[in-house]
Amino acid sequence: MELHQYQYLEAKCGQNDLPRCAAECPIHVDVRGMLQEAKRGNFSKAYALFAQTVPFPGIISQVCEQPCQQVCIRNDIDDGLAINAIERACYSYNEKKGSRAKLLLQKDNKVAVVGSGISGLTVAYHLANKGIKITVFEAGNNLGGRLLELTEGILNRRIMLNDLEVLNDLHVEIRLGVAINNSCSNSFNELLQEFDAVYLGLGQRDISALKLGLELNSNGTICVDPTTMETSNSKVFAGGSHLQDKNCLSVISSVADGKSAVISIDRFLQKASLTASRHAFGSKTTRLLTSVDSINPQPMVPISDPAKGYTEEEAKTEASRCIDCQCLECFKLCEYMRHFKMEPRALARQIFKNSSAIAHRFSLPMNSCSLCRQCEAVCQYDFSIADFCEAARETMVKAGRMPPSAFGFAIQDLKYSNSEAFVLTRLEPERSEIEYVFYPGCQLSGSAPWQVSKAYSYLREKISGGVGLMLGCCGVQASWAGETGIFQESLASFRSKWTELGKPGVIAGCPTCYMVFKKHLPELSVDLLSSIFDKFGLPEPAQSNSLVLAIHDSCTTRYEIEIQNSIRKILNNLGHTVKELTASRELTECCGFGGLMQISNRSLAHKVVDRRIEESEYDYLVYCSMCRDNFTNRGKTTYHLLDLIFGDEDGKIAARPPVGYSRRHDNRARLKNTFLKEVWGEDISYDPTPVKLIISEALRSVMENSLILDFDLYRVIEYAERTGNKLQNIVSGHYLAYFKPENVTYWVEYTAEGSGYVIHDAYSHRLEMTSPGESENDDNQTCRV
Amino acid sequence: MVKMNDEEKLGNGQDIICAKCNISLEVSPVKFNYVGVAFSVSLFNCPICGLTYVPAVLARGSMLDVQRALEDK
Fold first, then answer.
1. Does the pLDDT at position A366 exceed 90?
2. Which member of B30, B37, B51 has the closest CB to residue A725?
3. Which of B53, B54, B65, B66 to mutate to test the interface with A (most CBs of A within 10 A)?
4. What pTM does this model have?
5. What span, in angstroms and rounded, lies between the C-alpha atoms of A511 and A521?
6. Residue where one domain finishes, among candidates A386, A402, A418
7. Angle (CA) A285 A291 A295, round 5°
8. Same domain, A419 and A514
9. Which of A362, A768, A779 lies nearest to residue B71, judging by beta carbons?
10. Same domain, A92 and A116
């Protein structure tokens, strides 16, 4: 993934956008952070966050017009937060009262501020705090400009003077009673000579009479760039209420103008670009969406003594009404994101960084996502963590840095399913043309092979135009593993066999195969088996009680509404009652098989399943055999749709027992044999595990978790018995042998019993033994070869 | 660097014989290779045919730790 692609995809997520309050505030005070501190009673910390952005916290907390409160999301439920009142409480209960002046080296630059309204004072404060020499010129006898028009009840003069004290600390020179103009005197031009830059905060007055020589707007105001506050004279900047409509004057907007001018003047003095990477202050829209569905109404806390403002307790209670606006809709649903305790963008960043050309560093998060795209489905902006994981896996494979243990088992499984052991491509017997071909897929064939046989009989009976058969794997496991080459090979192989059959319509037994074909082979017409039931009528099902079942939709077909509807219709027709899970259809979850999560991060896959199966007390109904096997293996009674139509091996409608990797593996080859024998009358039987292996339930569970198949054990024993290469435990008499067919060395401890073998233990390792018993090296001294 | 545990490396090797050569195993270095890293480990081997014994406790224990450490390098 290129950097620009990453940036584009990452920016889709709105989680890092400002909450409404801060976005609406022209100077973007961290209101949310302040309220979070206030609700814990940390008023000093809350004040620090407020004062970090606001130049005069005492003044602003009293006179701000509170645009934040007007847009607070709580207005949709009850009352917007009393943000201004909490700001005042933070000011009152702040215990760190020291001066806000920084001790910086004085620079040589000199800036004149004309007018001591709030915008001019903002410029003076911030620039002086950068070490710049400031002189404020005020025509009147007091600092404050328009603030002085406010009554004592609105703006407490003691607090105001206290706030302005900081200007003394910063050695700001104040010249009162000095009018600046070029009409009565030449003082403005002299200012331009004497100072490196000038800020004009002239308030609501007609300035044409001042003859400043600046370009004016048609309404007589100074013409300024709205982002930089630069006037037609490059060393003069202007802002404040002078630029505002007299009917809607705003103190906080004047502060925003001052802060914009500060950035510009600082850049101007450093001869830097005024516009590079520059964002204007001022209210802006936010993409942060916050759900209020679970928020209970709780009206604003009244102030018991309006003269004093909130008590500490009242302020804490009011602040605790802040719902701490976050989106995180994907995070709330996704066990994977919660497992790694990372917000979506942070997770995306880590995955991108790890897979980038500089790092190429394998990390568990990139390999643990189920790629189910529930995050994308729930996101208003279609952000998907799968985009990053898929790209990272492909990059790691291409760079040869994907650890063999990550997805090796799945790739071996795929290769086996696309080998002669399972692959079969046939027209229907005694036909030279077929209308359809049935593609049951590798997992359904492994989990319930008899259902595949019955489904094929049903299709042949119902569809007069002929139905062929194709056994194999669609290759999705390679796609999930980032093995693009193997995936493309699988697709190409499928396409060529399908072409040989005369390009019939494909009936997929598995929703994943269905989606792979639909997405990657658009020239092909594909239906899911359930839709065929819908079209041609259901087979006569075995007798069954009416069941109440909660539907778990397949994640691969989350957008396939017709499939989802047809499943529900079939269940109704079969007389069962359908219950919906909270996250269903488009928002459904993965069973842990998707993205090979259960291969690369088994414990997480178990967490995912365990949470999902706890969602409803009802038995589950699924239409993907991996969902069935995964849920059943974790103890949830789960029916596959075909269990309700074709039944178990005895034809009874019942929930089947768990099926593990070994049985799925061997069942595929056996299914091929069955088809060849029963449909085409050919007897070339191949049994992957032709001897009887006696394995305890406890050991079978260990093997399942270690991804060891009966087939692997058989190959070890076959090799050991054929070559005599085996060890023996002289205490127990058990034989021990090992064999490495591909990347994994398998070990078996066994004894012969009749025509079969009792397996006492089975284990494996990926570290490759290259030359036993050779030269002396220090243990574990590693070197790159 | 994660190291293999000495006790795990030898396991119950003194109870194991090579069934092919009918001889007790002896401890000697075995070369290993994984993700481009080569190293050697002292394990029980057949002194004649070189058949090696990797105890289950080693494969499931520190050998797996070494594998993961190498993958994470």
1. yes
2. B51
3. B54
4. 0.85
5. 15
6. A402
7. 125
8. yes
9. A362
10. no
